[in-house]
Amino acid sequence: MIQFGTGGWRAVIGDGFTRANIQRVAAALGRRIVREGARKEICIGYDRRFLSREAAIWFSEAIAGEGVRVHFINLSAPTPQIMFTVKTRELPYGAAITASHNPALYNGIKLFTRGGRDAVQEVTDAIQAEANALTDADIRPLDFWECLKEGVVRFIDPRDEYLDSILQRMDTAAIRRRRPRIVLDPMFGVSLTGLLTILYSARCDVDVIHDTHDAFFGRRLPAPTMDTLADLQRQVLDHNADLGIATDGDADRLGVIDEKGNYVSANQVLVLLYYYLLKYKGWKGAVVRNVATTHLLDRVAAKFGEACYEVPVGFKHISEAMQAHDALIGGESSGGLTVRGHIFGKDGLYAAALLVEMLAATGKPLSRMLRDIFEEFGELHMAECDWPLTPGLKDEIAERVFDRRQLPDFEEPIREVSYVDGCKLTLDDGWLILRFSGTEPRLRIFAEAPTMAQARALAMAMAGFLGLPADPAGSGRN
């Protein structure tokens, strides 16, 4: 069965991710577009994963068979570029063939709606239901190459338009004066050409690793985390670089290494950029974070007289809240963020560009900037742990925590409990959340406290209460 999660539909290649299922999703979306009666057009792009281009072609054939014209990006493209194209060309829908940061065994489809934003749950639920109801006989694919000849499918290359929009928003003069040295790790994904263009245009000195096309991502998870960036850390130190930048498989998430070779967490990057925009650029506006993202953002917002809004996990919720509150920045602890005026989805390329600008404009090393923030607002550290789930274990945990609402005893009292997304507990000196992943069969626990030891103690208290082994697949991350 096709099942959409917080980041689109993802499945194991050859198991759930098959030509038949891809075309069912496309046909369901095509029928929705025709029923809505607006522009019967869509932008389709794909990443470097195994079968991504072929899947984009299969998707195009099925949706063209429903009477929808296809704008086909004929080179592997970052997901944010596809979202940007949907926005700027005023298309009603877009699709990216990608499984983002999931293991190489997976592929999937992300859907976007008008304005270049992630499709909300009501839309994906409806497409999911219709796709699962379709049979092979209901699919009416047209030949891709015949569609290309007839103009039903049209090749496009919006790369320059997208990159120019980022460059126009940057203080390239400040970067050229500083000329920082950057080590770039695209993690065998799709950010290479775009980030090199941006960084070279701003006159950065750049060294690159992991830049080939490898559908197995060097046999590593294409997610820029502390566990996957050891090569980037070594290269930053070897080249005496100012910054190390990594992006995930489809380039919507960012990972960062500072000039000392230290991993800078996604939470810290989000705080750094929000602080930079408020204090150094003088911009105004609230911040939006999800339930599993640092509360240090709340402290920064309060200091500058701004609000911090909390939403469920899933960038579509961040996008909605940013638009509703005209927020300045929104992001999540998994490495995605966006800034007002760009796109309503996460963009690793723009986030990287803004981080380079911050270094140049402030003249401060990244470690110094982070230390300044800690001195002003105090330190908060997050422990992240996850466990694989069997259906039986998931049902058992759900019954205990969400049905019977059993909770462990902590050394300090629980001040607030929220079940808006998972189970979030707020204590006097920290918080933790337990939730099921929306993209994989895994249980995740996040905890934040003034020290990493305290954060890990909170997470392990919950794990012990549930009878889970001590952190088999997670790690504490600042």
Write the layout of secondary structure elements.
Blueprint: E1 4-5, E2 8-12, H1 19-36, E3 41-46, H2 52-64, E4 69-73, H3 79-88, E5 93-97, E6 106-113, E7 117-118, H4 121-133, H5 144-150, E8 153-156, H6 159-169, H7 172-178, E9 181-185, H8 192-201, E10 205-208, H9 230-238, E11 243-247, E12 254-257, E13 263-264, H10 266-279, E14 287-290, H11 296-303, E15 308-311, H12 315-325, E16 329-331, E17 337-339, H13 348-362, H14 366-377, E18 381-388, H15 391-403, E19 414-418, E20 423-427, E21 430-436, E22 442-449, H16 452-466, E23 475-477
Parallel strand pairs: 3-4, 3-5, 4-8, 9-10, 9-11, 14-15, 14-16
Antiparallel strand pairs: 1-2, 2-6, 5-6, 6-7, 11-12, 12-13, 16-17, 18-22, 18-23, 19-20, 20-21, 21-22
Helix pairs in contact: 1-2, 1-4, 6-8, 7-13, 10-13
Key terms for this structure?
478 residues, globular, 22% strand, 6-stranded antiparallel sheet, 16 helices, alpha/beta, 8-stranded mixed sheet, disordered C terminus, single chain
